[in-house]
Amino acid sequence: MSELTPLELEVGQLIIDTLNLEDIAAADIEAEAALFREGLGLDSIDALELALAISRQYGFQLRSDDENNARIFSSLRALAAHIAAQRVK
Questions:
Q1: Which of 5, 7, 10, 55 stands 20 to 30 A from 25 (CA)?
Q2: Is the CB of residue 47 less than 8 Å from the CB of residue 79?
Q3: 42: nearest Cα among 16, 10, 66
């Protein structure tokens, strides 16, 4: 398991808080593990809630029709990298 960056830990905590995940800490999320289906097992409703939380927290929109969403939400590391590149807050 690779070491999480401070932003990955922050985004991991945002995921946990937004989706009310119990019995998991941000440090327990593997950076390269899938967020959807296997891995954390998130679904499309979770993605919508998470996109809204990211918008509020980091000041940019994740669009549901973005062709890169599968890549952006593929793992905690990919999501944190996208946030780092896009954030305005």
A1: 55
A2: no
A3: 16
Q: What is the pLDDT of residue 85?
A: 96
State the Cα–Cα distance between residues 23 and 43, nearest whole angstrom.
18
Q: Does the reported pTM lie above 0.85?
A: yes
Query: Residue 56 falls within a domain, yes or no?
Result: yes
Give the CATH number of the domain where residue 68 resides: 1.10.1200.10
DSSP 3-state of 75: strand
For the record, the structure tokens of 27 come out as: 């440090």
Neighbours of 73 (CB within 10 A): 21
Which element (helix H / strand E) includes 69?
helix 69-72
Measured between alpha carbons, how far is 88 from 71 in angstroms, rounded to an integer? Answer: 21
Q: Report how far residue 27's alpha carbon sits from residue 86's, in angstroms, rounded to the nearest whole number.
A: 23
CA nearest neighbour of 29 among 89, 69, 82, 79: 79
pLDDT of residue 1: 54
